[in-house]
Amino acid sequence: MKSFRFLGAAYVVVGETPRLQSSLVTLPVFASVVLALALIFGQPARLSAQHEKESKPSDAKSAEAKPAEGKEPEPKEESSATDHTIRLGGQTVPYKATASTTFLKNDKDEPTALIFSIAYTRNDVKDASTRPLAFIYNGGPGSASVWLHMGAFGPRRVVTANAPQPTPPPPYKVEDNADCLLDKTDMVFIDPVGTGYSHAVGKAQNKDFWGVDEDVKSLAQFILTYVTRNHRWNSPKFLIGESYGTFRSAALSHYLQHTNHMDFNGIVLVSSVLDVGTLSFNTGNEMPYVFSLPSYAAAAWINNMLKDRPADLEAFLDQARQFASTEYLAALMKGSRLADADKLEMAKKLSRFTGLSEDYLVKANLRVSLPQFNAELERSKGLTTGRYDARFTGPTYDLLTEQAEYDPSYSAVAGAFTAAINSYLREDLKFNSERTYEILSYEPSRNWNWKHTVPGGGSFFPGSPNVEDDLIQAMLSNNHLQVQVENGLFDMATPFFATEWTMDHLLLPASLRSHIHFDYYTAGHMMYLNDADHDKLAANVRAFITSASK
Q1: Which of 206, 326, 343, 526 is least crowded, fewest Cβ atoms below 10 Å from its Cβ?
Q2: Where in the chain are the domains?
Q3: Strand 266-272 versus strand 237-243 pairing type
Q4: How far apart are the first and last CA of the chain?
Q5: Are 210 and 198 in contact (CB under 8 A)?
Q6: Measured in whole angstroms, how far is the alpha carbon of residue 265 from the centre of its chain?
């Protein structure tokens, strides 16, 4: 089997200065897992820059100054701090926005990367040391934090068309976000290496940070440095991640609590996946078909592809859950032993829930992967169904294609978010860089090291990437930790039924099981793209932060 060498990292603390200790490990590349992850998500460090409170606006051009001929420029940290106000809940909230790059350094005190982040801190608070602090990021792996930043929780929000309409080309509008979380918590939006403006420096390469454990250790170092330099050790702390960001949060919370004794008050999982196996349509793995069925039913319902469409979506999805976990699972478990007559009968029942023809389901052997479903559901209309959000559709070029050619729900908003963040950084935050701001790069996911050191050592045999044990240990060691799980019913990328199954099978004691809270939205992966669901999400997260901070 072909293998690659990755730069691992062991975390050490010298005094108050966090550092990374390099180590080389040889890891096998599991092609099926990497391919599955590529389909799932749309997705320091010593701080020698001035203290956040002392930062002054800068156009940050010096970081991109051209080197003298034949000489590489010395990497340096840059920071731009600007003051703003926003109206939240009938009151004017003043705040400081600090856009900056922060060094990651190895055990030799050599810079290895610059992490780009944007911190929002309320500046009318006399003592911020006990004010809640949320670290926020998206997923991918390979996604910048722009989606949660300018779509959900930041003080400025890009205006997009409500589903199922795609957002028209520029000019785009950016407006104050009335649902910004600043009235409840300060926020730090983080772009991991290879996303946003974050990149490796010196002798390091971006891929040195592309891996489950490598990613966790780099973000842990950044968080430790931020908390130390800004005197926020006593602040209630939260992790908020979306998609692969939820996978990251489970591992990151355990790592920081176990290694550095940094306890968290709460974790918000937006469109969650903790076990990649629940989403991997590999031969012999029947569970992803079971977990996806209720999402297929939701997609067929919202797009009017059911012969006898019920009026009550919630009741219909309850029926889909029950059918998927009983009759359908039993049929799949029989494999090739399933009789032809039983296969025909099962195809008829599946058609009622999915809107797919009985003939197609029989030919598919009752097993339809997500890319196949998105291509087939509305093929008769010449349309492809959205993966991040099934409410979005787009024209299909090749009407004979087996799998979806693209995701209409991503292309509907990608241009708006890209233009918005680039304009906002330069015009509002005065952070001018000639680098390309990577909102979603596919390079990290293609080169990701999925090997993960599981708490307790794990099994001798490798399995699908899984961080359930990390979350279990984080909740056991910190039995006050609260977890809020946000689910979009029309999210095809991270199906809600898979998330429910995952949380139910953590097998936590009853006292801790009650610490996991579920919210549902008639929306997709990025439920905040619809105004009503955006308001609901913000209200739920705001209430969660208030409750968990007590």
Answers
A1: 326
A2: 3-65+74-277+416-548, 285-368
A3: parallel
A4: 52
A5: no
A6: 19
Q: CA-to-CA distance for 531 and 68, rounded, in angstroms?
A: 50
Report the C-alpha gap between 44 and 56 in whole angstroms. Answer: 21
Q: How far apart are CA 546 and CA 538, in angstroms?
A: 12
Q: Distance between CA atoms of 502 and 506, rounded to whole angstroms?
A: 6
Q: How many residues does the chain have?
A: 550
**Please, are residues 264 and 478 in contact by the beta-carbon 8 Å criterion?**
yes
Separation in Å, CA 533 to CA 86, 114, 489: 21, 35, 12
CATH topology of domain 3-65+74-277+416-548: Rossmann fold (3.40.50)
Phi, psi of 273, deg, nearest 5: -150, 120
What one-character-per-residue DSSP string does 351-369 give?
Answer: HHHH---HHHHHHTTT---
Contacts of 289 (CB under 8 A, 6+ apart): 281, 328, 332, 366, 367, 368, 369
Q: Quick: pLDDT tens for 25-70.
A: 333 434 444 444 444 444 333 333 333 433 444 444 444 444 455 5
Q: What is the mean pLDDT of residues 506-521?
A: 97
Q: How far apart are CA 190 and CA 222, in angstroms?
A: 9
pLDDT class of 454 with cuts at 50, 70, 90: confident
Give dist(CA 524, CA 173) in Å, integer: 22
Cα–Cα distance, 154 to 182 (Å, whole number):
8
Residue 160 has pLDDT above 80, yes or no: yes
In three-state secondary structure terms, 513 is: helix
User: Which residue is associated with the tokens 């023809």?
Assistant: 357
The position carrying tokens 């109206």 is 87
Mean pLDDT (the chain, rounded)? 89
CB–CB of 496/484 below 8 Å? no
Three-state DSSP state, 348: helix
Burial of 498 (0-12, 13-18, 19+ CB in 10 A): buried
Query: Cα–Cα distance between 483 and 64 in angstroms, integer?
Result: 41
Question: Do 430 and 130 meet the contact criterion of CB atoms below 8 Å apart?
Answer: no
pTM of the model as a whole: 0.87
pLDDT at 458: 67
- Sign, Cα dihedral of 45, 49, 54, 60: negative
